[in-house]
Structure formats: C-alpha cells, structure tokens
Amino acid sequence: MWLTLLYSCTGGAALLYALYRWVIPAAVQYHGGLALLWHDIIVERMLDTLTQSTRPQRLLGAVQKNATRGDPRSVVKAIDEFCRHKEWAMNVGDEKGCILDSVVSELNPATVLELGTYCGYSTVRIASLLPPHAKLITLEFNPDYAKIACQVIAWAGLEDKVIRKLQRNIYKMIHGTQNLTFLCV
Ligand SMILES: C[S@@+](CC[C@H](N)C(=O)[O-])C[C@H]1O[C@@H](n2cnc3c(N)ncnc32)[C@H](O)[C@@H]1O
C-alpha cells in the first residue's frame, strides 16, 4: 500500500512538473489568450496570495534590489531581467522597447504623451532619451500602478522629466497638450 502511494505521489509530481515546465510554456507560446490566462490570472493570483504582495510591488522590489539609483538603463535592465526570469508583466518589453528607443532618438521630441504608465518601464525608456528641457506626460488610471511607477521613475532619477497624471481621459489630455511631438500608446 505504501509503495502504491509513493508511486502515485511521484507520478503526480512528475506530471505536474512536466505540465509546468514544458506543456504550459508551449501552449502559452502559441496562443495569446492562453498566455493572458496563465500569466495574468493563474500565476499572478497564485504569487499574490503566496507572497502577500502584488506583481507591481514585486517588480519595484527587483528594481530596488538590482538597479542603481539614478541610472535609467539599470532600471530598464532590472525590469527586463525580472520579466525574463521571474514573472511576465505587461511592459512594452525589450524587443519593442528597442524600436521605441530608436523612434524617440530619431524624433528628438519636445513633448511626449504616453497613454498607460503601468509600472513606468516605457516611461523610463522614453524619458531617459529625451533632450534637455523636453517633457514626458504619462497617464495612468490605476492608482496602485501609478504609485509604483512614481517610485520606479524616481529610482531612475527622472522625476524632473516626467509629469504623471492619474487620469483616464486621454482626449482631454491630447487637446490640452501644447506642441505634442510624440504620442506613445
Ligand atoms: C500595456 S500597459 C502599459 C505598459 C507601459 N507602457 C510599459 O511599457 O511599461 C497599459 C496600461 O494602460 C492603463 N490604461 C488603460 N486604459 C487607460 C486609460 N483610459 N487611461 C489611463 N490609463 C489607462 C492600464 O491600467 C495599464 O497600466
């Protein structure tokens, strides 16, 4: 009887490991909906419960642990590493981030409006490339995300370049922003 129980437990554990290690990552790779379900609902809720923290708080923790204060590139790198090795998060990410960098560098904008700050990843990428005196206005309607973004932006040393607005009315912002040279969604 003990042997049967041991076999069942080992078999169950092996099955769960195979699911977690190979089957789920493969499924998630090929289907956007499954990816969202897995990363954004199942894993996030599980980790929130286990760690009694939120994903943005864990992301901020990774920044504070691994990035150098006042060094925006190290903040971007710390978030990329967090998302690559620890948890998926809805940042623009490294690949699209490089495209964003080249557009910002090419346009050299004086005023940028960003719609959706989340934890401030793309905000840091954009703001760190802006010419002196240029400003980035970033909108976020979720106060919890906005609070974390504020700390990420401060850690990168970019508070003076970024104007944060806790607001959802993008039309009002677009019409109210003078000389908008670049809009990032
Ligand atoms: C994909 S995330 C942005 C990621 C971010 N740009 C980055 O790369 O780090 C989208 C964000 O937009 C915010 N959002 C969605 N609709 C919004 C609205 N109408 N006004 C303000 N924020 C909004 C969400 O709360 C979420 O944080």
UniProtKB/TrEMBL annotation:
- Which example biological process does GO assign this protein? methylation
Which Gene Ontology terms cover its molecular function?
Answer: catechol O-methyltransferase activity
Matching entries from InterPro entries are given as: SAM-dependent_MTases_sf, SAM_O-MeTrfase
Determine if Transferase is one of this entry's keywords. yes
User: What's the domain of life for this entry?
Assistant: Eukaryota
Q: Please state the Enzyme Commission number of this protein.
A: 2.1.1.6
User: Could you tell me the keywords of this UniProt record?
Assistant: Catecholamine metabolism, Methyltransferase, Neurotransmitter degradation, S-adenosyl-L-methionine, Transferase
Asked if S-adenosyl-L-methionine is a keyword of the record, the answer is: yes
Name of the top EC class for this enzyme: transferase
Q: Coiled-coil region(s) at which residues? A: none
Q: What's the family?
A: Belongs to the class I-like SAM-binding methyltransferase superfamily. Cation-dependent O-methyltransferase family.
Q: What is this protein called?
A: catechol O-methyltransferase
